[in-house]
Design a protein that fits this description.
By secondary structure, this protein is of the alpha+beta class. It has 8 helices and 5 strands, in the order βββαββααααααα.
Length: about 240
């Protein structure tokens, strides 16, 4: 037996598995592991292929008569130890997206933002970084809990909503600071607030703990929305 890097996924085969192209040039069908329904394997492994940067296939040499190769699914419950890898991927994706938005907006954090009129209850700038860091961490943990425990019908819409709200989260600093458009940022943050509500609803169907982990995020975005609206209104004239 040998390890082959996954070169490409050709599609779902009628035989009930993913037809893949391996680094040694031959094709293989990755079937569901014993005890895992084909539909569950299909939905979970589809997200695995999208989110995992370096999937590997344990395959038999073409010269041997060993059984068909099996996909090593880190996120399908085959090995609890490997579940930690999916957590690190989600943390990396969440913090990576936030870092992109922060870097893109950093040029406007100086004189322009300081020149804006702000309400008396505007928090010190030093608070925002640590608060967001904690929120991004618990967001990723919440998503990980849903990924681990949910069925295919629960995981796909929940994770879609999670990444959709993450995109809206990244867009907010780009609009507010990068474009210097607090009014348009209000539109974005309201959509973000609604997306978080949907995410909490979907997460709750899988894990009550995951839903509660998003509660501080919702509270902070609610506060940020009120602050955004206030800054926009007092500087509009």
């Amino acid at each position: 037996m040998k390890w082959n890097a996954l070169r490409g996924v050709l599609g779902w085969d009628r035989a009930g598995g993913w037809r893949t192209r391996l680094s040694d040039g031959h094709d293989s069908i990755q079937r569901a592991p014993p005890g895992v329904a084909a539909s569950r394997f299909k939905s979970r492994s589809a997200l695995y292929f999208i989110l995992h940067p370096s999937a590997f296939i344990l395959s038999a040499s073409p010269q041997t008569s060993a059984p068909r190769p099996k996909l090593v699914l880190y996120w399908m419950g085959i090995s609890k130890k490997r579940h930690w890898l999916s957590l690190f991927v989600l943390i990396g994706a969440t913090f990576g997206a936030s870092a992109f938005g922060a870097l893109a907006a950093s040029s406007s954090l100086g004189s322009w933002y300081h020149s804006l009129e702000k309400p008396a209850w505007n928090p010190p700038e030093a608070i925002f970084g640590p608060v967001w860091s904690v929120l991004y961490l618990i967001m990723a943990i919440a998503a990980w809990l849903v990924w681990r425990r949910g069925s295919e019908n629960e995981v796909i819409p929940a994770m879609t909503t999670y990444f959709a709200q993450l995109v809206l989260n990244v867009l907010w600093p780009l609009i507010f600071f990068g474009l210097r458009a607090p009014g348009w940022a209000v539109f974005d943050i309201v959509l973000l607030w609604l997306a978080i509500i949907v995410a909490i609803t979907q997460f709750r169907r899988v894990s009550l703990a995951a839903a509660w982990l998003l509660a501080p995020y919702l509270a902070w975005v609610t506060f940020a929305s009120v602050l955004n609206i206030t800054i926009w209104r007092i500087n509009e004239g």
